[in-house]
């Protein structure tokens, strides 16, 4: 019995997976494709006496396309194979055991096409791009943000003061770092209270809405307790390390129905996304997080310190923001129906000198976030924040940075330090 069915026309209701597969020595693409379809649907390494014909007929995956040259394998999975509203179990099928089999030398998931029937089982973002714009009254430009640095070590009181400096310097958003939780020198409750006090003052002084991305990542029950504290405080956002917390926690958290928007940090993603031969690419993870319902998602910068090409990050941006994503040489067409667009977060090694390039690559529906690029400014946090704002003003007005810097001291100082 083979799962190869090259005459099969996928149904609209099928879930499709686009793999790149390396056959083991002495084996061909048909062999490896068959093994992947087998293990990721109903089969195992030998024939089964318990495999009823109706199970085979109704639930087996079908390899409907093999591209020998590019080592691509496309597999269609009938929807009945899955519990629709159970993302962890769906991934356990199509992106589970298959990565560890000897019968596959290397395996990469390039894309998953989610059918309408499955998409309708998920909430998607509560706010998304438009909701965050409504929340902040920022409509026609990218958001600017920073991460409090050093990422760990500041006492809660100083954390709040640095946040205040960043906000009054002109940034919209201040974020906890991915590894800041409730360490003894910066307890969660105290940090939340002190930072929100400063946020109120900064909003008062600037007349602008400010955002605090407080990190609630913790074991699930504790994460929920922290989310309740944030909801009681009236803060608009929480931040979750979504990859580390897991698909189950992220789905459940979104279904808890908290009022806050979700800023998704992807720390650890590169453990499975970075190797182009093996693992799951960030585009596929980003689709899962859009479906599960994050409002902001880190996707890379192309120009900063983290890996990811301009083509890769801009394709991910399209995937999390377009209503209908067109197919291309390594991506399925994907319709998103009612699922809102996600705000893309460009972060990692950025400074004011990068602002024009990031906007050129990713457009306006983004958060441009800089930690070292703000707190490393020669004149400190407030000047670093001002320099980011000035860089964005220059970009929005179409003025070259060097030109604008002539009249803007903080930007000039930033470019001198970070570019020259
Ligand atoms: O800790 C850091 O490195 C950052 O806070 C950036 O700080 P800097 O601005 O000081 O580099 C973010 O966690 C990374 O951007 C995450 O990477 P990604 O956005 O690619 O997931
Ligand atoms: Mg960080």
TrEMBL record:
Entry cofactors: Mg(2+)
Enzyme Commission number(s) from the entry: 4.1.1.39
Key words of the record: Carbon dioxide fixation, Lyase, Magnesium, Metal-binding, Oxidoreductase
Ranges of residues in domain Ribulose bisphosphate carboxylase large subunit C-terminal: 129-418
GO molecular function: magnesium ion binding; oxidoreductase activity; ribulose-bisphosphate carboxylase activity
Domain Ribulose bisphosphate carboxylase large subunit ferrodoxin-like N-terminal stretches: 3-117
Family matches, as InterPro entries: RuBisCO (IPR033966), RuBisCO_III (IPR017712), RuBisCO_lsu_C (IPR000685), RuBisCO_lsu_C_sf (IPR036376), RuBisCO_lsu_fd_N (IPR017443), RuBisCO_lsu_N_sf (IPR036422)
Residues noted as binding Mg(2+) in the record, renumbered to the chain: 175, 177-178
Catalytic activity as recorded in UniProt: 2 (2R)-3-phosphoglycerate + 2 H(+) = D-ribulose 1,5-bisphosphate + CO2 + H2O; D-ribulose 1,5-bisphosphate + O2 = 2-phosphoglycolate + (2R)-3-phosphoglycerate + 2 H(+)
Pfam family, one: RuBisCO_large
Cofactor binding remark: Binds 1 Mg(2+) ion per subunit.
Modified residues (N6-carboxylysine): 175
Site (described: Transition state stabilizer): 305
GO biological process, one term: AMP catabolic process
Binding-site list for substrate: 151, 266, 298, 347-349, 369-372
Domain of life according to the entry: Archaea
Similarity annotation: Belongs to the RuBisCO large chain family. Type III subfamily.
Protein task: Catalyzes the addition of molecular CO(2) and H(2)O to ribulose 1,5-bisphosphate (RuBP), generating two molecules of 3-phosphoglycerate (3-PGA). Functions in an archaeal AMP degradation pathway, together with AMP phosphorylase and R15P isomerase.
Assembly and interaction partners: Homodimer or homodecamer. In contrast to form I RuBisCO, the form III RuBisCO is composed solely of large subunits.
Miscellaneous field: Because the Archaea possessing a type III RuBisCO are all anaerobic, it is most likely that only the carboxylase activity of RuBisCO, and not the competitive oxygenase activity (by which RuBP reacts with O(2) to form one molecule of 3-phosphoglycerate and one molecule of 2-phosphoglycolate), is biologically relevant in these strains.
Protein name (record): Ribulose bisphosphate carboxylase
Provenance organism: Aciduliprofundum boonei (strain DSM 19572 / T469)
Gene (name only): rbcL
């Amino acid at each position: 019995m083979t799962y190869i069915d090259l005459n099969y026309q996928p149904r609209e209701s099928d879930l499709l997976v686009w793999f790149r597969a390396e056959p083991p020595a002495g084996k061909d693409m048909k062999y490896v494709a068959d093994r992947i379809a087998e293990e990721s649907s109903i089969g195992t390494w030998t024939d089964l006496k318990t495999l009823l014909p109706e199970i085979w007929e109704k639930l087996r995956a079908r390899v409907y396309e093999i591209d020998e040259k590019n080592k691509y394998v496309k597999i269609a999975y009938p929807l009945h194979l899955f519990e629709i509203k159970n993302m962890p179990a769906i991934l356990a099928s199509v992106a589970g055991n298959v990565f560890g089999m000897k019968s596959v030398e290397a395996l990469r998931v390039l894309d998953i096409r989610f059918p309408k029937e499955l998409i309708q089982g998920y909430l998607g973002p509560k706010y998304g791009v438009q909701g965050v714009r409504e929340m902040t009254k920022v409509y026609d430009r990218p958001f600017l943000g920073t991460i409090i640095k050093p990422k760990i070590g500041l006492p809660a009181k100083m954390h709040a003061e640095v946040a205040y400096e960043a906000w009054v310097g002109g940034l919209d958003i201040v974020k906890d770092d991915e590894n800041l939780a409730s360490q003894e020198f910066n307890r969660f409750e105290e940090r939340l209270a002190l930072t929100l006090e400063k946020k109120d003052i900064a909003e008062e002084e600037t007349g602008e809405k400010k955002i605090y991305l407080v990190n609630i990542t913790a074991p699930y029950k504790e994460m929920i307790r922290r989310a309740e504290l944030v909801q009681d405080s009236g803060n608009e956002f929480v931040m979750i390390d979504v990859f580390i917390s897991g698909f189950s926690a992220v789905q459940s958290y979104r279904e808890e129905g908290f009022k806050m928007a979700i800023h998704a940090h992807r720390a650890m993603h590169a453990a499975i996304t970075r190797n182009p031969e093996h693992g799951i690419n960030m585009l596929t993870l980003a689709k899962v997080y859009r479906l599960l319902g994050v409002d902001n998602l880190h996707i890379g910068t192309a120009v900063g310190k983290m890996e990811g090409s301009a083509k890769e990050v801009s394709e991910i941006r399209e995937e999390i923001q377009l209503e209908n994503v067109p197919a291309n040489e390594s991506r399925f067409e994907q319709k998103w129906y009612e699922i809102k667009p996600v705000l893309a977060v460009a972060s990692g090694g950025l400074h004011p000198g990068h602002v024009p390039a990031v906007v050129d690559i990713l457009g306006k529906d983004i958060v441009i976030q800089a930690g070292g690029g703000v707190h490393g400014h020669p004149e400190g946090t407030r000047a670093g924040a001002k320099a980011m704002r000035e860089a964005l003003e220059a970009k929005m007005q179409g003025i070259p940075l060097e030109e604008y810097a002539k009249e803007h001291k903080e930007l000039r100082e930033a470019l001198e330090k970070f570019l020259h």
